[in-house]
Amino acid sequence: MTLDFAPVWGGLPELLKGTVVTIEVTAAAFLLSAVLGLLVGIIRLNPARRVLYGIASAYVAFIRGTPLLVQLFLLFFGLPQFGILLPAWLCGVIGLGIYSGSYVSEVVRGAIQSIDRGQMEAARSLGMSYREAMWEVVLPQAFRRMLPPLGNETIALIKNSALVSLLTIDDVMREGQRIISTSFRALEVYIAVALIYFILTNAATWILRQIEKRMTVERG
Amino acid sequence: MIEIRNVYKSFGSTEVLKDVSLTVPPSRTTVVIGPSGSGKSTLLRCCNCLETADRGEIRINHRTIIADGKPLPDKELNALRAETGMVFQSFNLFPHMTTVENVMRAPVVVRGMAKAEARELAMELLRKVGLGDKADVYPSTLSGGQKQRAAIARALAMKPKVMLFDEPTSALDPELVGEVLQVMKTLAEEGMTMMVVTHEMGFAREVADTVVVMADGRIVESGSPEQIFTNPTQERTRGFLRALVDGHLAGARPQPPADDPLDTLPGNH
Known about the structure:
The complex is a heterodimer.
Chain A: H1 6-10, H2 12-43, H3 50-65, H4 68-78, H5 88-114, H6 117-125, H7 130-160, H8 172-183, H9 186-218
Helix pairs in contact in A: 2-5, 2-8, 3-5, 4-5, 5-7, 6-7, 7-9, 8-9
Chain B: E1 2-11, E2 14-24, E3 29-33, H1 40-46, E4 55-60, E5 63-67, E6 70-71, H2 74-82, E7 84-87, H3 99-111, H4 115-128, H5 144-156, E8 162-166, H6 174-189, E9 193-197, H7 201-207, E10 210-215, E11 218-223, H8 225-230, H9 235-252
Parallel strand pairs in B: 3-9, 3-10, 7-8, 8-9
Antiparallel strand pairs in B: 1-2, 1-4, 4-5, 5-6, 10-11
Helix pairs in contact in B: 3-4, 3-5, 4-5, 5-6
């Protein structure tokens, strides 16, 4: 058997277009997951606010406890039964964002809880409100500790985004499959697709490492 | 001024404060001493609601900060805390800010002070505690004594009317204790109202207007430093002071050379 990469080269423009879609979907989902993760993570610090805590905990339990593929299908095939017809890309972004957000919320909660209690106390003793103390003192320190596990989450998010190809979104995965359907060169095309994901995940890791390094240097 | 009236506090089933009443008059320094676990730190932390007293009342400058387990609403509590400086045993400087940022941040955030003005105020305070040249370094590069002096400057930046010190020198190497106590002494001389929990008897003797002895969650005895240190009336006080002196002596005394164990064995030669 010989490898023939000609279909890959021929389909390169499509693959690159798909890569851009993958990046867009992932970036949008990342933003949603960051906002959601931050909110839910902070809410889950305090069980005394029962209703909010209950909702947040149910969210984390449900999303982490069920397959992403099922969640995506619920959004894409399930919601239309209620007359809610979202565009495919929106289903993808929301599905990925909600899924990743549940993991990020645990990263956020863990990082905040790892900051010495004395930091919050010192900030409060100076007259800062809980929110001010969180924003000025606790979160900046917690953020640095979030970065390594956040790197893991980002990698997972990029790779999981391949599932949105099943929602008819033309990401790099779906573009690859399209090339295969006409060229029947599955091995070569999937190697190329894998390589693209590999580059994307490592680029994300590299960016996060740079942020991490910069924060360490800044602190002297 | 600080007025503590019949305060009780429990952690779970452990009663740490039992009917404690104490007044720190304006411009006076009250030093609280006592064995560890006596409740003195908890009492201090109750004074700005870092701990919630279960019963009783605490007033700061004639304003009730907590009464019978109900603290002031958050907004007013924040305002009152801003006027009540707190210094912690473990400094609790903000590691992600430089020294001067540590000092100027709260005036900017809480009082809405302009940054330039806050920086000027912070620099003035840092110079006052002898850290004018450390303004732009991060706390991780400071010694323990410098950290605590920076923490005092940070508290002073809010222009507090009352200062609470929670064992401010307990985490310091012995040779760094003096520089922190000197700053506190200056503050006391300038007329700050201070409540200090400490094991530094020299400081208590020299600076305190009143010394309060706590044990087992109660105030055992209080009076002038002379009275407490030279003529204590309570056995608990005497026991505590004796233990302190013994501790110091034991630390200073050279260990006697160990006998050769073989010498004590009969007929072994």
